[in-house]
Amino acid sequence: MADDLDAAATLRGDSVPHVAVQALAAGCDYLLLADTGSQLSDVVRSIMAAVDSGMLSEEELGESARRIRSAAHRFESWSREKASNGS
Predict the structure, then answer these.
(1) Helices H, strands E: what count in the chain?
(2) Distance of CA 38 to the CA centre of its chain
(3) Which N-terminal stretch is annotated as signal sequence (predicted)?
(4) Going residue by residue through the chain (87 aa), what tens digit of pLDDT does each one get?
(5) Which of 21, 31, 66, 79 has its Cα between 20 and 30 A from that of 42?
(6) pTM greater than 0.90 (yes/no)
(7) Cα distance between the two ends of the chain
């Protein structure tokens, strides 16, 4: 998971879209963007451009998406189990 992409310590003078692509290229599955989403379109465009240029692999992004879905499923199962046990 990447730290907040629009935090000054994360940006270090770069743009949020550039840092997002760098984080994905480094193997991050989750990107955290704490602003109101005003930069989301730019981030998505940068990711798409990085895939088109070969900087990011569509297959690796697909694997990342599968890991995210798997984690969400495990959390959902755990949450249901806790609720049924009264915890």
Answers:
(1) 4, 0
(2) 16
(3) none
(4) 777 877 766 777 788 899 999 999 999 999 988 876 788 999 999 999 999 999 999 999 999 999 999 999 998 888 777 778 876
(5) 66
(6) no
(7) 28
Give the type of residue at 34.
Answer: A
Q: What letters, b where the CB count within 10 A reaches 16 and e where it falls short, cover 29-52? A: bebebeeeeebeeebeebbeebbe
The label of the residue with tokens 């895939």 reads 51
Q: What does the alpha-carbon distance between residue 57 and residue 25 come to, in Å, rounded to a whole number?
A: 9
**Distance in angstroms (rounded) separating the CA atoms of residues 39 and 41:** 6
- Dmax (CA) of the chain: 51
Calpha distance 28→61 (Å, rounded): 10
